[in-house]
Amino acid sequence: MKYFTKEFYTLQRLAFANNYLKTSKKAEKKNDKFYQRIYDKRCDFYVNNERRCEPYIDPKEELRKIDEFCNAPDISDEERSRRLEIRKAHLYINRERIESGIFYDFDEQTVKRQFAERQNIEIETYRHLPKEILDKIADIRVFALGYASAEVINLLRPYCEKLRKAVKQIIDTAYAETNKSEKLLNAKLNFNDYETVPVLSLKEIGGDIYLESEDNEYLVFKGGKILEGQGHRIYPYNSHIPNSGWSVINTAELHSKENEFEANFLISNLNEIGQEELWYLSISATDIIEKTIK
After folding, report:
1. Residue 220's beta-bridge partner residues?
2. Mean pLDDT, to the nearest integer, of 112-122?
3. What is the pTM assigned to this prediction?
4. Is the pLDDT of residue 239 over 90?
């Protein structure tokens, strides 16, 4: 059975619905002007943050500024040595960017659409709150932006506390079963750590299934067979390319039965404008190993 379902994913997010809420008198009644003001403020903050991201920065100009920083006069040898280590690390991480010299124009409209999609995802999640709480929320758009009345926050507190306990119980049960199954593998994988791991590709090679993550690392399912998720689109995230979309493992669980393993993943796809799709990937195998391919 799957423990980490799409329904669990929603419950997990609802369990922390009260964590970042601010009390506001203006959230007690629907107020379009209040909503638009805070929406614009949050959107502007998001846009400005994205504008500073790596793909929009000229890597050669960035290196020039670092060189100025390293060659500044009137600094100690010790400080200069420290700054040169920063330069060395920068060159190592950004070698491809610097060699290509490629950077991109900032697409503000696309980024604003991404923010709007994030808002839509939050709203759709909170529509699953109990009716007695939803009925007290004057404007779910404002709630999704982090503002609620004192009454709503007071109602949420015990609900979220109870839900967090239920979510923890599911996680503990799934982790325990995964740990038990993992002991039967030929090599330890720390399978419970396969969360928030990007998925770059899924392919069959010589009768095995290869699930690619970052840095040329693969999970290899020996004698693997895809039980669910065959042919599903995967967005190979690239931090050097803006709006590339991404596919990421939200949760992973492992089951075993009669010398065969079944790995279940709940994967989230975010496309170029941030629309989210959840899907299951299930793979059976006789063994599972980690492998790095250069």
Report:
1. 210, 289
2. 96
3. 0.87
4. no
